[in-house]
Design a protein that fits this description.
By secondary structure, the chain is of the alpha/beta class. It is 43% helix and 16% strand. The model is unreliable at 133-138 (pLDDT under 50).
């Protein structure tokens, strides 16, 4: 269970610092989908401060997890701190580095993929399709 007050602090700080995070409307739409599907494995490209991964964690299947990729070292540090503060560190694994280099090393089959990165979406779609599963869905 996430700490709602701590999550709100994370959100407000990100907004104040102009760090791009998932919009409430997008989160609501994704939440409806994820509630029905209860993904076991989810991939996020573009962790930022960890806000969206933290939000997604509540929709996972009981033993589900999220792999998230972030290339900015400062963001990785802050995301790890935020994830720990909210108490979902057992559900979220952060890969530090460029998704271009990390994606080919992942051998997971993901049920949902959220692309929130600074590159063109088509660039990542080509790379994550190797993880093709009959259950995966992309959110961009």
């Amino acid at each position: 269970m996430t700490d709602k007050k701590e999550l709100e602090k994370i959100k407000q700080k990100a907004l104040e610092e102009r760090i791009p995070i998932i919009m409430d409307e997008t989160l609501e739409i994704m939440g409806e989908y994820l509630t029905k599907r209860k993904p076991e494995k989810m991939l996020e490209i573009g962790t930022a401060v960890g806000y969206s991964a933290i939000c997604f964690a509540k929709f996972l299947a009981e033993n589900g997890h999220i792999d998230t990729i972030e290339r900015e070292q400062e963001r990785v540090k802050e995301a790890k701190e935020n994830i720990k503060k909210v108490g979902v560190e057992d559900k979220i694994r952060i890969y530090e580095g460029d998704a271009v280099e990390i994606l080919p090393t992942l051998n997971e089959k993901y049920d949902a993929i959220f692309i929130d990165a600074a590159r063109k979406i088509s660039f990542f779609l080509k790379r994550v399709s190797k993880n093709d599963s009959t259950r995966w869905y992309y959110f961009c």
